[in-house]
């Protein structure tokens, strides 16, 4: 999570030529910037969660010899 957030911040700085908004609700942050940051942060968090879960399931299967029992 921390690594993906740092990567998102670096990408934002490269693309926008400025720091990401620390507080998207601040009056100095435009609606466009606030929404773009929220969408990007949400997408990165979701992707990170999927990668972590799939990695944990693969590790479980490798060490235990069977896939984990998942509640679906």
Describe the fold and architecture:
By secondary structure, this protein is mostly helical. The relative contact order is 0.11.
Summary?
68% of the residues lie in helices and 0% in strands. The protein has 72 residues and is an all-alpha fold.
Structural class: mainly alpha
Total number of beta strands:
0
Q: If you average the pLDDT, what whole number results?
A: 91
Helix run count: 2
Q: What is the N-to-C order of secondary-structure elements (H for helix, E for strand)? A: HH
Major β-sheet, in short?
Answer: none
Tell me the Rg in angstroms: 17 Å
Please identify the oligomeric state: single chain
